[in-house]
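Incident review: delayed structure delivery

Summary: a single-chain prediction request sat in the queue longer than the usual turnaround. Root cause was a stuck worker, restarted by the on-call engineer. No data loss occurred. The affected request and its eventual output are reproduced below so the record is complete for anyone auditing the incident later.

Affected input:
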Amino acid sequence: MREFSLEIPAPDKWGEGLVSVAQGEPIVVDVRLESVHEGILATGEVDTEYTGTCGRCLGEVAESVRVAFQELFAYPGGEETDFEVQGDHVDLETPVRDAIVLSLPFQPVCQPDCPGLDPVTGERLTENTGSPEREPIDPRWATLQGYTPQDDTTDHGDQDSRA
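Output delivered after worker restart:
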């Protein structure tokens, strides 16, 4: 068994969609390599940071990510496997990349309770503009907006009118 701690830059942009790990972003890999009957078992943790866009308010997002991985690198020969030992080395790039990309959020948010964008103005609701918030008017009721009730003094018969 051998343990290694490596810090390497991301060789490419990892991830698609709203967030990704940028090319050159430092990736810290702590890995334990164990010799087993079938090959070499790699178990480890990866630390890095992803950046991108909030899925609600379209603001900047930058978060750290820590993910564990485990992969068996089989000795060449017998059966075909996804990963093989090459000489006396193992290539960790693919399992590390897969672990990171699969742990990236599908709908990232800048804060857990991000309210998003105002549907009328398109402004971020997280930024207070100082203007009073108005409830949007339903277009079916818009004609009543200027209505003011008249003073109704008619006797309705069933009401007790005492003066």
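Verification: The CA atoms of residues 58 and 116 lie 8 Å apart.
Action items: add queue-age alerting; document worker restart procedure.
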